[in-house]
Amino acid sequence: MARDSGLIFAEQPRRRRWPLFVLAAGLVLLIAALPRLAVLLPAGVQRVDAALAARFVPRYEARLASLQAENTALHKHLAGAQIALAENDALRQWAGIERPAGRWQAARVVFRWHDHAELAGVYPVGAAVCDEQGRFAGRITEAGAGSDVSGIKTTATRTADGWVLNGSKLWIHNAPVADVAFVLARTDKDAGHRGMSIFIVDCSRDGVSRGPKEHKMGQRSSQVGELHFNQVRLPAQALLGPENRGFHIMMSVLNKGRVGIGALAVGIARAGLEAAIAYAKQREQFGKPIADFQGVQFMLADIAKDTEAARLLVHSAAYKIDTDAPDTSIACSMAKCFAGDVAVQHSGNAVQIFGGGGYIRGVEVERLYRDAKITQIYEGTNQIQRMIIGRNLLA
Prior knowledge:
alpha+beta, four-stranded mixed beta sheet, four-stranded antiparallel beta sheet, flat
């Protein structure tokens, strides 16, 4: 006991000092764990998504390359049904790769509207598109023109030797890295949607600039950003298709795009179903796998039947594109709308089957849930698809 100022204090126990080697070992473990901890940060997520996309993009493109070899008429038309099947197969693995791979849609448009030899001689960037080289960006959305395409403000003014392009586009896939952009611009200010044209724009031209890359909720492997055009001079050959027919060309592209989004959504739903089945078989509660509970079985059954229905709708729409069926437009809208709704609803149900674990960043179903939402929005919102369906039914 120690006596101090008349008060008696108990001696304090000696503080334990951690050996230096224990502290050093802890520091080494922390450094080793930093890459995993980075997943919790937006930049870390972007890097992880990009790494996974790098793994699956070659597989995706190899599948498309095999389809190209099988289809002798590819340079006039890439078969919608074949592309839908390829996308659906690849997207069960990784949804974010679909949008950058959308360059195939761009190639289809060029194959249809431009002669390769002509482009090679006067506009090399156009020939590069026909040769399937480089990265493409497209094509419509502006700050005041989303669902209402007729609201675009970007203009192309004719000159003695070509065109001058002015305006901005936002939320454009591949914009941060694109070599070539397909730009819908107004060429007749008084003609509404009948006064729009499409231009092939070399993104290295003077006057073309890029906005910041957006950080998205899902499908983060697909880069999205802005493109700005300030007095960009284009050759006459940059015009894609007939003047003032750009809106109609874009609408035909959107039909194919909607089949692609439908296939993407089916892939997400199927991946969620497979993950939920595997988890339900191994996760035990109350002494048995949760797959034995009727409530979980009902959820799995709903995911499976709706996913199969969406898959058949997508394949039907793709077939109608290939055969130029008169009801192609309504079929594409039905497929995209239904498949997108299925992906969102049932990726959420997959998360529910995983319980709390499904809400943790890095778990597959959590990513699928984030990836699914945009399928209800791009290539025309599902509300717009319902309008198209309704108008076709009442026409």
